[in-house]
Amino acid sequence: MSNGPWHLILNGKNANDETVRDAVGALRERGRRIAVRVTWEQGDAHRYTLEAIAAGASAVVAAGGDGTLHHVCNALAGTGLDAGALPAVAVLPLGTANDFARAAGIPEEPEEALDLVDRVPARPVDLVRVIPQRGRERWCVNVVTAGFATRITTDTPPELKKLLGGAAYFLTGMTRMGSVRAAHGRLRGPDFEWAGDFLVLAVGNGRQAGGGQALTPEARLDDGVFDLMLLPPPPEGEFAAALGALLRHGRAALLDAAVRRRLTWLEIEAEEGLSLNLDGEPLQASRLRIEAARGRLRMHLPAATPLLPDGEGSGRGAG
């Protein structure tokens, strides 16, 4: 597929972005074949990705935010085809937070981001497979969250995100601090069991979510495991002190108390149900299984991306 055309799937919100138009035009002048598809409604990104496979595309460029990348990767992984039989994935970050792209070091300028696809060969990357007890399986390329972090993402108005970018998530979080309610769940994985209340649960294939919050800062894309972070609530009567520490010292003051593991699979039960967020896309479930899928896709990333340190493939193991 290396000689095939690129299919650029452009989020409809960015259809009139002249910098994208200029970048595509510059590549076409150099002989690169690029088909542009603009999303209009739910399901378009999935359908366009399948069309790219049928057309023999060598790369599918997710041009939008984390949600656009999520839908492209779900369409590719959902085919059941091996990574080598599928187009590689590339990212043109045009969203509000662009959490995956920023953690990966992908350039924000469209021409630089597209030039990366030409210069750097695609490499195998892991995905996280999410299997709810009811409903279809989903795939996550960046971070799965549940708890207070998910509520912040859901409650942040699109208008505020457009005005403030990633800072909108922080502002929403501060306005919701007085109504924080912990979730409750039971978790089980390899040599790991945990039950109790938590404010934030994060399963990281990537490193950050919610507009730059580094929830799983050591995660990488090629080790065959995901990073789990569980943040329990402060002891009863100490919430005000914890909030003060957050304001003085930042999120590190809370995340120091987090439970962290590296796992190949995880089962979650929550009798009251959980509102989860997969790359910014919602999922409701009370029981689910999460699995690390090693080398599920190929992706064009910067040669020195922090998410593939030193190009090593198996420097860490599950714990």
TrEMBL record:
Assigned EC number: 2.7.1.-
Similarity-based family: Belongs to the diacylglycerol/lipid kinase family. YegS lipid kinase subfamily.
NCBIfam families: PRK13054.1 (NF009602), YegS/Rv2252/BmrU family lipid kinase (TIGR00147)
DAGKc domain boundaries: 1-133
Domain of life: Bacteria
Residue sites binding ATP per the record: T39, G65, D66, G67, T68, L69, H70, H71, T96
SUPFAM superfamilies in the cross-refs: NAD kinase/diacylglycerol kinase-like (SSF111331)
Gene3D superfamilies assigned: 2.60.200.40, Probable inorganic polyphosphate/atp-NAD kinase, domain 1 (3.40.50.10330)
Function: Probably phosphorylates lipids; the in vivo substrate is unknown.
InterPro entries the record matches: ATP-NAD_kinase_N, Diacylglycerol/lipid_kinase, Diacylglycerol_kinase_cat_dom, Lip_kinase_YegS, Lipid_Phosphate_FormReg, NAD/diacylglycerol_kinase_sf, YegS/DAGK_C
Active-site residues annotated for this sequence: E281
Name of the encoding gene: yegS
Any one Gene Ontology molecular-function term assigned to this protein's record: kinase activity
Keywords annotated in UniProt: ATP-binding, Cytoplasm, Kinase, Lipid biosynthesis, Lipid metabolism, Magnesium, Metal-binding, Nucleotide-binding, Phospholipid biosynthesis, Phospholipid metabolism, Transferase
Binding positions for Mg(2+) per the UniProt entry: R220, D223
The protein's name in its UniProt record: Probable lipid kinase YegS-like
Subcellular location: Cytoplasm
Pfam families in UniProt: DAGK_cat (PF00781), YegS_C (PF19279)
Cofactor details (free text): Binds 1 Mg(2+) ion per subunit. Ca(2+) may be able to substitute.
Co-factor(s): Mg(2+); Ca(2+)
Entry annotated with the keyword Hydrolase: no
